[in-house]
Amino acid sequence: MNGTQAALAPRLTLISHPLCPFVQRVAIVLHEKRLVFERVDVDLDDRPDWFVALSPTGKVPLLEVRDRLGRGGVLFESMAICEYAEDLGIGARLYPDDAFARAGQRAWIEFASAMLGDAWRLLNAGDERAARVEGDALRGRLRRFESELGDGP
C-alpha cells in the first residue's frame, strides 16, 4: 500500500475468534490486501454485550470500519467482508476481472465452505459407522476440489 492509499484506508477492526475458519478467511484476505487492521477476539461461549449489540447473527467475523472522520459501521459474514476489502481497490486484486471467472471463483469458495460442515460432522460423529460415512463424504469433496486446483499456487 502506498502513502496515499494508507492515508485514505479506513481504520479496520476484525472482531474474531481464534478457531473460526471464517475469521481466518477474512484475516488472510486482509493480509493479502496489505490492509492494516486490529484484531479483537471474543469468547463465543460468553458473548459480551457490545458484541451481541453489533452482530446481527451472533457470529464472527465482524469488521468494524471507520474512515478518517470516524464515520463507518460494521460488516458481517466473511464473504461480504472479503468482497468489501477487494472493492476498496487497495493492494493486489484477488478476484478476476471477468464476470464468469469471478462467479466461478465464488462458487468454489462456497463449495469449500461446505466442506467445513463436513469436517465438523466428521469430528462430532457419534460412533465409528457415522465417522466412516462422514469421512467418506469429506474425502469425496476433497478429491473433487483438488481436481480443480491444478498445479498453480
From TrEMBL:
Protein name: Glutathione S-transferase
Keyword Coiled coil: no
Keywords: Transferase
Species for this entry: Burkholderia plantarii
PROSITE patterns found in the cross-reference section: GST_NTER (PS50404)
GO molecular function, one term: glutathione transferase activity
Domain GST N-terminal: 10-93
Enzyme Commission number, as recorded: 2.5.1.18
Top EC class of this enzyme: transferase
GO cellular component, one term: cytoplasm
Keyword Transferase: yes
PANTHER family associated with the record: GLUTATHIONE S-TRANSFERASE OMEGA, PTHR43968
Lineage start: Bacteria, Pseudomonadati, Pseudomonadota, Betaproteobacteria, Burkholderiales
